[in-house]
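Write out the bound-state structure for zinc ion.
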Amino acid sequence: MKDQRDLEKIKEMLLREKGKILSKLQRNKEEEQNNRGRQAVGDDADHAVALEEEKLRSSLTAMEIQRLRAIDGALQRIENGTYGYCEECGEPIEEGRLLAKPFAVLCVRCQEEREKKRF
Ligand SMILES: [Zn+2]
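---
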């Protein structure tokens, strides 16, 4: 991925995605505060619902934060010129893969290897 135009496009995608995640996190935080208020006044059933919601939200938040880190990592790699190369084997990552998943850090082969090891 040495084409400057493609990099610009990917950078734009990453920044847009980052903005979306940040506003989602902000919304979550506001909901959490509303939820806290409800917990203070509600009965046991309300509390149970609120607790479930909170659990769901915090796992979603963790996921979004992880995604945010991946995006920041990709943006950093664009800046220092290492973007688009596999972290594992150093080969260029397939362009179609980067367009579909702009913060991928592994080529398809290494990703498959890693997943095989995990299971
Ligand atoms: Zn690789």
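---
The chain has a mean pLDDT of 89.
The CA atoms of residues 85 and 91 lie 5 Å apart.
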